[in-house]
Structures are given as structure tokens and as C-alpha cells.
Amino acid sequence: MGSAMTSYQSNKLAMYTATLGLLKSSDAQTSSMPVFAESQGKFEDLVAQIKNKDKERIGKTTGKSAAKDEAEDALVTATVMIAAGLTAFARKKGNTQLKEKAKVSESYLRRIRSHEQVNIAKLTYDLALANAEGLVEYSITPSMLSDFKSRIAAYEAAIEDIGTGMASRVGARTAVGDLFIQVDDLLKEELDPMMELFRMKEPELYNDYHAARVIKDIGIRHKKGDKKVVSGSPN
Questions:
Q1: pLDDT by residue (tens digit) across 136-153?
Q2: Could you say which of 12, 38, 124, 197 has the lowest number of CB atoms within 10 Å?
Q3: Beta-ladder partners of 216
């Protein structure tokens, strides 16, 4: 799944990382100002929090999605198998109505929405339960029907878990957004002003810092000769 961050936030995080990397390699120049090291430490901690929260959200989302896919595969396989037995049974009995109700293909089940898959699986289960005695002849046993019912329940639970995850993702985006605000405030109110104090005695560091503080659009690939899009000022 995608990141909890917007593309602009991703570009901004790249700017944070570049700026932090520069500062960490310039400890010798900034060591004369202890308060600068303190603000740099807070900056590093906030950037780490942003990365960890985004990584955590991606991990949770990936896990939920994988569980849903696994449950869907199990449900579709069971539904198609039970439906095939029902169809064969209905054909033998000349029960056209049952044959039509039980008719379902794997390709169709894969195309439809989750709740529609569940509805078809439940219909197939009810039909099979009503004809359980005759289905034994087709190697569909009561224990198989019990397993089918469990697969339906497992898939419904996985769908619900994905829905809960959507609410969590909104919360994750809010938390990450708050951290970005804190970093921007720290840069503008602490590190940027203090860097002005190095303008005369460490001009190279000063210039490198402001070059790193520019947000670049790293999400766009540029052809040779194209001009890169950058923000007009650091953020």
C-alpha cells in the first residue's frame, strides 16, 4: 500500500533528511554553539518519528491486505467447489431452478465487490446445507460445509478489519501531519535563525544549509534539458 504521506510531504521529508545529513556532518563547525546542537537533536528526533510512524502504518496496512487476500482466496476456492457439486447434483435431479441458483464462476467471483462475494458464498452455503444429504454422493461432506461456513466468517472479519484500518490510516495521516508542523516550526523558529549566526564565520556551511533547505519535487522524472521544479524558498 501507499504511504500515509502526500507527495508534497514526501518531498519535504527528503529536504529534512538532506538538511539533517548536512548538519550531522558539520558538528565541528556548529559545536561552538551548544544550543544549536540541542535544536539539532530535537530536529533529528522529530524526523525519526515521522519515518517510524509512516513505516508502522505501511506495515499494518500491508498485513491487513495480505490477510484479506488470503481469506478471499480460501472463500472463492470453497464457493466454486461447493457450487460445482450443487450444479452436478441439480443436473442429475433435473432441478433447473437449483442449477441456475448454484451457477457461479471463479472469474465472476474475482471481479465483484467483497460484500457481493460474501452474499454469493452465503447463498451457496444455504443451498448446499438444504441439499446436504444428496451432496455426500459428490464428496461434499458436512465437515466440508462447516469449513465453508468458517471461511465465510473469516472473510467477513478480514473485510471488517480493512474497514477499521481505513480509520486508522486517517489517524496516521493526522499524526504525521502534526509532526511536519512541529518540524517546520523548529526549523523556522530555531535552526534557521541560529544558522544566520554562522553566515560570516562559516559561509560554506551557511550556503550548503540553505541549499539543502529547498524542497525539490523528487516525484517527477525530468528529461535531459528540462528544468527541475523547486520551491522558491525553504519551508
A1: 999 999 999 999 999 999
A2: 38
A3: 230
